[in-house]
């Protein structure tokens, strides 16, 4: 079924990134028609890891809109007030709200935009098609729907990172953390032995949650490093979440960007908050006092092989010490991969670009490395022969390599980034490309963006 309208803005994904975009479009007075397509049946925010007691890692005032407009009706504070919970929340004197509370806030905002979102639609292909009005984007979904649009904003989040050794074993007993809660609900059995792979915040939260489950007999944490490490929460390091940092980072040569990202990696990756580390260390100490092996730490270790249905358990893991090279075996009923998300770049685990860009890849401006050249306003220049208006493609939350560490995984930058994108969307070039063959890429704006992106 084709939705014959040509939308001014088509958003793919309706998580926090494109939700913030919807808020900004409304608040900055966008008058064009916009539509969002979301895979989930209803609004959700990382539902699969909505673990009891987990809090957010972000000052809740840096919400979808407050850094731009303190008077916005969509602030976290307004949400609390609208639920009659503001005083209770303030009384709690907590630094970070529970993830459950913040998910409630995001859902409350999303409800205000229900009319602009088609839920239960998984975008499967993006292409450029010729219509009577000229070239426009076509977005196809898994259920056979098609949407046409002049500007597309991809806000899908990144793909889960599945290390190669697990790729043939994924299923009901080997799964990524993004499927944690639903997979655990489906598991049957008692005294389960569960391996959690990774040293991230998600990994430690899952280990703690598993230890609270009566059907779990033993949890083994397998990680390459020395054990769960502390996140870099220095206010100086956290400057990466400031809009000024993006201005500093964006024009740097790619080697400098890689160096900064490596140096500041523990802001976001393979590192955990103090509270969960303290909690786990104390739980571990208590098990040791009781002589219990319910929690095992396999550190400086990586899984070298997975053999299904071995040793009476569902999966036999061959684990290698990363320094000595010695091998040991662990039989696990369940293996949970808290192994993070794939970056965009040239690394062995990286994706060159989001899979949805495959159908338009030959029209995108590429940089010297063959990767999409993203401009400061998060757009990727698109070649077009003619159309109602120049085609524009934006990446909302997929630009860590070009825009810095705040981009991929932080709520803190949402409002600044969506403001940049909407301001750019509103900058229409004077020239509308026509059927006379005058290429849209000659439009002043597109030319400027391409120069900037390729610099
Ligand atoms: C468990 C967890 C906790 C986190 N907690 C914090 C935190 O406390 N603070 C913080 O700053 N960051 C946190 N993050 C980082 C997180 O990435 C951001 O908070 C935020 O979710 C990013 O928003 P997003 O919209 O870019 O991506 P997502 O939240 O991943 O949303 C993307 C949306 O796009 C949809 N989608 C994907 N593909 C398609 C498709 N093909 N078609 C249609 N729809 C699609 C998805 O269903 C999803 O709803 C957390 C991440 C995780 C995994």
Number of helical segments with 4 or more residues: 13
* Separation of the first and last Cα atoms: 41 Å
Ligands bound to this protein structure: flavin-adenine dinucleotide
Sheet of most strands: 8 strands, mixed
Number of strands: 16
The CATH superfamily label of the largest domain reads FAD/NAD(P)-binding domain
Domains (count): 2
Q: What class do helices, strands and sheet pairing give?
A: alpha/beta
Average pLDDT number: 92
Note the overall shape.
globular
CATH topological fold name of the largest domain: FAD/NAD(P)-binding domain
Helix content: 25-40%
- The CATH class name of the largest domain reads Alpha Beta
Q: Report the sheet-strand fraction.
A: 15-25%
**Low-confidence runs (pLDDT<50, min 5 residues)?**
437-445
Computed Rg: 23 Å
The secondary-structure element order is EHEHHHEEEEEHEHEHHHEEEEEEEHHHH
The assigned CATH architecture of the largest domain is 3-Layer(bba) Sandwich
Instruction: Name the quaternary structure.
Output: single chain
Pfam family, one: Lys_Orn_oxgnase
GO molecular function, one term: L-lysine 6-monooxygenase (NADPH) activity
Catalytic activity: L-lysine + NADPH + O2 = N(6)-hydroxy-L-lysine + NADP(+) + H2O
Family: Belongs to the lysine N(6)-hydroxylase/L-ornithine N(5)-oxygenase family.
């Amino acid at each position: 079924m084709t939705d014959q309208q040509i939308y001014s803005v088509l958003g793919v994904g309706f998580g926090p990134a494109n939700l913030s975009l919807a808020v900004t479009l409304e608040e900055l007075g966008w008058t064009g028609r916009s539509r969002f397509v979301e895979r989930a049946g209803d609004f959700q925010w990382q539902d699969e890891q909505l673990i009891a007691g987990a809090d957010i890692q972000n000052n809740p005032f840096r919400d979808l809109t407050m850094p731009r407009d303190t008077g916005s009706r969509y602030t976290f504070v307004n949400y609390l007030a609208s639920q009659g919970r503001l005083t209770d929340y303030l009384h709690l004197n907590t630094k970070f709200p529970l993830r459950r509370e913040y998910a409630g806030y995001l859902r409350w905002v999303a409800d205000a935009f229900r009319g602009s979102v088609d839920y239960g639609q998984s975008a499967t292909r993006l292409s450029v098609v010729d219509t009577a009005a000229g070239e426009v984007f076509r977005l196809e979904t898994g259920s056979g729907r098609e949407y046409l649009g002049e500007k597309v904003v991809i806000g899908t989040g990144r793909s889960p990172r599945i290390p190669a050794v697990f790729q043939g074993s994924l299923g009901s007993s080997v799964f990524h953390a993004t499927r944690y809660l639903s997979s655990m609900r489906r598991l049957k059995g008692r005294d389960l032995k569960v391996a959690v792979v990774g040293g991230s915040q998600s990994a430690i939260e899952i280990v703690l949650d598993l230890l609270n489950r009566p059907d779990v007999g033993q949890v083994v944490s397998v990680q390459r490093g020395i054990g769960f490490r502390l996140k870099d929460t220095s206010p100086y390091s956290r400057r990466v979440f400031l809009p000024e940092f993006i201005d500093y980072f964006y024009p740097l040569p790619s080697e400098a960007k890689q160096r900064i990202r490596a140096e500041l990696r523990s802001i976001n990756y393979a590192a955990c908050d103090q509270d969960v580390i303290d909690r786990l260390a104390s739980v571990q100490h208590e098990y040791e006092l009781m002589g219990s092996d319910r929690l095992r730490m396999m550190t400086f270790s990586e899984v070298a092989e997975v053999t299904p249905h071995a040793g009476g358990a569902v999966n036999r893991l061959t684990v290698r010490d990363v320094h000595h090279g010695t091998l040991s075996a662990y039989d696990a009923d369940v293996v949970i991969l808290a192994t993070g998300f794939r970056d965009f770049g040239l690394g062995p685990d990286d994706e060159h670009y989001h899979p949805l860009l495959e159908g338009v890849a030959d029209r995108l401006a590429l940089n010297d490395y063959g990767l999409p050249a993203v401009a400061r306003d998060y757009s990727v220049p698109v070649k077009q022969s003619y159309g109602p208006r120049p085609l524009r493609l934006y990446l909302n939350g997929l630009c860590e390599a070009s825009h810095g560490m705040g981009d991929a995984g932080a709520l803190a930058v949402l409002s600044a980034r969506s403001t940049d994108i909407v301001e750019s969307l509103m900058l229409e070039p004077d020239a509308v490309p026509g059927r006379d063959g005058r290429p849209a890429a000659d439009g002043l704006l597109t030319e400027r963006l391409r120069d900037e992106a390729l610099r």
